[in-house]
Structure formats: structure tokens, C-alpha cells
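Blinded run. Sample ID left blank on purpose so nobody reads anything into the name before looking at the predicted structure. Input follows.
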Amino acid sequence: YTFTTVVVFRCYVMSLSHCIFCFHYCLYFCLEYIFYFFFFFFKQKTAYEMLRSLVGSEMCIRDRYSHTADRLWRKNRRENSDGSYGVDLNRNWPNHWGEDGGSGTKEQDYQGTAEASEPEVQAVMKYMHDNLPSAAAGIDYHSYGKMILRSPGWRRGNDKDEHMLRRLGGAMRDGTASAGGGSYKSMHAADLYPCTGAMDDWMSEQVGMWGHGWTVELPSGGQQFMLPEADLEKVTTGAFEGLLRFVKQLREEKRRRSQAAVQGDVQLLSAS
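Blinded prediction complete.
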């Protein structure tokens, strides 16, 4: 069977623009990763220390896979018109959907019949619209590759916020490495390969998150999607520290933006 789940973790102790963190894809170890992730939230440091870092954040966790036929099943289980099954949910978001021509229904990256045609995508879009109208940034966790992918992903080249994106990606990379999670590469998403209809670009462009949408490709432990159980703890420890560093840097970027806005107002008053 297959299933899709959405779990939300809320943390609203202080005032800060929200971040959303999503977990999905054909992760054989995705559920185990999620359990470890929450373990480190509640056990590795004190609750007070964690709340200071992740205040104002939300985690939206979604995953799907097949137990009976293909444990690395990538798509959902939509029955297509030709009798095949599945739409790749990370090609179904309303961001430049289908501009690359798309692929056939039997392909692993089939984008669906229309943008946001799939109920899983619609549900997350509605949740974010209803609950996170001013989200600052979003991270979509995938496997595998040890990469931190920044906007844009649908085309090659820099975004107007390239300098800020480099700082955010670098903070996550350095934090992950400092906790023994390995050496990630911070890079443009499109340098891996251009991808239309993806969630990260939708968060950057359609939602308008000033901190942008991101994709993080977790390590494989040399086993592609089948991360060895022995590596799960260090992967999770590193990814969690990378997340904390990202959020801290995001707070610093918010301070910079506020400072720049004040300076801009002063210059306008001086010129008037």
C-alpha cells in the first residue's frame, strides 16, 4: 500500500517570521529519519535551547512509499488515464509547470495533467496559505546527494538575492559539518539539473518567501536511497545542526533587512 502523511510541529514562543520544513520523496529511510529528527529536538539539547533556535518555525512532514511492490516508489498512486500509476509530486507545483515539455505517465518524474492537480500538493498549499501567509523560508528535504540547493532551480543563473542565499547555504553547510554530518555542497539547484514544477521554487516565487525555498539532499552512505541504519544518527545529528544554523542565519538576515530599510528611509528623508 501507499500513503501520504502530513504532520505539523508548532513552536510559537517568540515573534519571528515563520519557516516551514518539509520532508518527502522516495526516501526508504524517511520515516526513520523523521523519528530521529524529533528525538534530537526533544533529547539532544534542553527544550529552552531548542526553542530559542526554532521559535516561530513549523515542520510539515509528508512521505509516501510502497510496501508491496517497490519500496523506492517515487510518485504518489494516482491512477493515470493509460492505466499506469503515479505523479511525481515535486514536478506538480504551480511554478513553471510543464515548461520543459514534461515526461510520459510511466516515467518517474511525470508532472501530472495540470499544475497542482494532485491532492497532496493541494493540501500542503492550502495549509501554508491558511497558516503560514508570512513564512520567511522553506526547506524541502530529499535524498540523496549531500547538497544544499538554492534558488533558482527551474533555470540556470543567479537570483537577485544570491549573496544572501550564499550566506544561508553556507551556514547550513558549516553547521552540518560541525556536528559530524559530513561535507555538503552549497550550490544552485539548477546546476544539479533544471527542474520545473518544484516545491522550492514555488516557495520562492509564488509564495514570495524572502528567505526563499530550499532543497536539501541528504547523504546516502554509499547506498543511494538505502541509507545504512548505522549512519542514520550521524546524518540526523548533522542535518539538525545545519537546520539550527540556517534559522540563526535567517534571523541575522532579517536584522540586516530591517537595518537596510531604516537606512533607506533616512536617505529618502535627507533627499526630500
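Unblinding after everyone has recorded impressions. Strands lie at 7-11, 19-23, 57-61, 137-143, 147-150, 185-188, 213-218.
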